Amino acid sequence: MLTTGNQLKAARALAGVEQIALAEASGLSVGTIRNMEARGSETLKSGLATITAVQRALEAAGVEFLNGDAPGVRLRPRA
């Protein structure tokens, strides 16, 4: 699950997706994406629907979210 601003920023970078493209794909404003990333290592304060929309858009771009000891991301292996 997407939990921090840094995790969001890393996921977006791995997927090669600009903030504006992620905003469009998730149905949110680019300001919302910027504000989420600005949280840095802090837990996201956005609503569940917002976080879920961003996570689904990034998962559609091939990102997997890792939440073991610390939040992380990786690209899904290609088949």
Notable features of this structure?
single chain; Helix-turn-helix transcriptional regulator; 51% helix; globular; 79 residues; 4 helices; alpha+beta; 434 Repressor (Amino-terminal Domain); 13% strand
What features would you describe in this structure?
The structure is a single chain. The chain is an alpha+beta fold and 79 residues long. The chain has one domain (5-69): Orthogonal Bundle (434 Repressor (Amino-terminal Domain)). It is built from four helices and two strands, in the order ααααββ. The chain has helices spanning 5-15, 19-26, 30-37, 48-60; strands at residues 63-67, 71-75. A hairpin with a 3-residue loop joins strand 1 (63-67) and strand 2 (71-75). The longest helix has 13 residues, at 48-60. It is globular and about 35 Å long.
Topology:
Blueprint: H1 5-15, H2 19-26, H3 30-37, H4 48-60, E1 63-67, E2 71-75
Antiparallel strand pairs: 1-2
Helix pairs in contact: 2-3, 2-4
Q: What does the largest sheet look like? A: 2 strands, antiparallel
Within CATH, the superfamily carries the name lambda repressor-like DNA-binding domains
Estimate the strand proportion: 5-15%
| Mean pLDDT figure | 95
> Structural class of the secondary structure composition?
alpha+beta
Relative helix content:
40-55%
Low-confidence stretches: none
CATH architecture: Orthogonal Bundle
What is the gyration radius calculated from CA atoms? 11 Å
Distance between the termini: 23 Å
| Domain module tally | 1
Topology as a string of helices (H) and strands (E): HHHHEE
How many DSSP H or I helices?
Answer: 4
In total, the number of strands is: 2
**CATH class designation:** Mainly Alpha
- Based on Cα principal axes, name the global outline: globular
CATH topology: 434 Repressor (Amino-terminal Domain)
How is the largest sheet built, in terms of strand order? Answer: 1-2
